[in-house]
Amino acid sequence: MLKKWRRNWQKKRLKDPSFQFLFETPPDEDLVCFDCETSGLNPKKDVLISLSAVKIRGQSILTSQALNLTFSQAQPISEASIKVHMIRNQDTLTGLPPQQAIQQFLQFIGSRPLVGYYLEFDVAMVNQVIRPWLGIQLPNPQIEVSELYYDLKFSQQSHAIPQPAINLSFQTILDDLKIPNFGQHDAFNDALMTALVYLKLTQLK
Amino acid sequence: MSTQQALNFLHQVSPFSSLNDKVLATIADAMDVVYFALGSQLEITQSQSEKQNGYLYFVIKGHVAEYDAEQQQRAVYGHNTFFGEATLLQKESFLRYEVIEEAILYRLPQSVFIALLEQPNIEGYFVDDILTKLNRLQSQRQAEASSDALMGIVSDAPWQNLVVVSAEQSIRDCVEQMHKQQTDASVIEQPDNEPGIVTSIDLLNALALNEHQLDDAVGPIANRPLVTVHQLDYLFNALLKMTKYRVNRLVVRSDEELIGVLHQKELMSVFANQSGLAVVKIQQAQTVADLRAVVDEIDRLVIHLNNRGVKTHYIAKLVNELHRKLIQKVFELLTIDRPEVQQGCLMVMGSEGRAEQVIRTDQDNAFILPDSVQKHPGLGVFMQQFSQALIDLGFPRCPGNIMVSNPEWCLTLSEFKQQLRDWLNHPTADTLMKVSILFDAEAILGDANLLAELKQTLFKWVAANQHFLPHFAKPVLMFDTPINFFGHWVKEKPSGQAQIDLKKTGIFPIVHGVRCLALKHGITKTNTHWRIKALMDMGVLDETFGFELGEVLNFMNTLRLEAMIVQLNCEKTPDNLIQVTQLSSLQQDLLKDGFKVVSRFKQRIDHQFKVSAVL
Prior knowledge:
The complex is a heterodimer of chains A (205) and B (615). Chain A is an alpha/beta fold and 205 residues long.
């Protein structure tokens, strides 16, 4: 009820009618898993550097149609941040301006549900670009894989006393679910591994 | 980026790993990741493949069991294997797969897989029957084995014992000795210390046809000069000598003396299957089209020898000898009914003349007619045909049009001399380059004296006009060495990529500097390594520096060759740029040291020819 109201309210605030499709019924059953690399961990002041998204259709991950975006940077990326994601300033020279890149992203996701790990942060980063531009936040349903994982662990351990803490770090989840390592943690590989986590968790049930 | 891990994966899966990166990238781009929980079922039926919506699956992780229509388990697939091809190729109509350990797979659409079958390696793997597959494997092994054998040394091959008799001894003595040692040739010591050789055929002919008597001295029958090979020389050099001098035997020598006889028969027995050898194929070719396959084979040989760590100098030597044989053969095939052309001298020039071209980048060739022969009106047309035939075979057109098809490079001897004098008297960048190219020429067919005479004209002119050499040497100093005062790289950065032009900054100064010294000192050898050796023998270069220069040249040529092979694999046109960042740190250090040697050499050239005075 509240959701529906929020949705309608957002729809009314949409500044550009060509993005109506974000509020329509999804064209298919696909989900979109995405991940981004940023200049830091504060969605208020840090910016997007790269973003990758893949569609999940049934039990396959459509890596052949993946979306990979690099963002051009107004400010040089800090050394500390470069060391985390290994994207140098040089690598962003061919990047797109944020608005143009996010437009591609919105076309890609449509109104499909989003899947991610600590999705809240990634969505906030995208909202940072679209709020001033379209007047809305991403209206898509969101599926948080760390929650799915927590539910699984909790159901397995719910009889234990005292209740153990469940480690929700990405690496722990990958190790525990025996997801193969696809190499360097970049946006694409993380999106792919998150999608695998999602598939595995939903199939286990 | 997105496809990098898929690309890495494919690199580990045969036969896909044999494809070049460009093709692999298109496969990687088309692959999706699929997840199957434990116990999932997957059916692949013919109707799917007929509708073009089948897939080839690669196992990233987990295990998948394959069952046929009778529910018999036929195979289990694990990490780095693939399945599904049998139905895609319509060899099976129905297969069922069961996930026996939860699996993550890559999935490649049928259309992409079918398109791949156009690649010979892939087609061979999937389509050939088992017999063809085994033959393919066999021929691959043979190719490897024959290049192994090529890199063996002479002492590895079986020789015949050495028989030496003196010139005054009788034919009877000689035959007895040969019989005792079970050999069919004997070295004949001559009074002038230039030994010769007689073979059993020579002896038979002498006795039966030329009316020699058994008691006659053997000396006059002997053939000279004696063609020898060092016991530590490579077998391919032995083979090249045999083909070059058209002899069946080489006398093997150590540092001190003659020690045995290497027969072509025995040499060939080392090369298990001779048909794999390019030389033999060139000799057997009946038409120009037959040679096409040999050209490809030579290219593969280059890659193979380089992979085995053979020095680029030796690869170049082998490849150039093969290329020359090839050009000779083309010329012979085209001139069968043109006796008037056969009296001239065909020569290769530039890097081909120096025997330093490994990957065919261009053709530089010319033709000299003796003055006694009238220029035939059809000559020009024939030369056009000849150049075109070489282009068709994969010797690219020379960008400067330095080919026999250009009338400037197809002249009588006196016309050539006149043209050379014109060039020398009016030196421009263009004419100096032509003089360089001509100076590197080697005759490959016909009367080599014509070229020798032309070069003598050059030497005489240069000796009489000492002011010429400083101008000629100028280009040595033209390009700066890419190392600065502090020993750091100075890089060309057209696109932000750190790269250096190895040919311009390293190889060219050495080659041209050595060429200038050779021109000054009248050295007729054309290969840069031989020129360096000749200069060392004359005392112009000291031993240590000469060896350093040769090794640096070798190293730089190897780097250049490797970069070119990589480019060819990516189906790019090879250039001379080296990405410094892609070299190992050891290679970078060696290269820096190499450039220091180049700098020192440039200073010597500058000093010797007073180049700075004319800059």
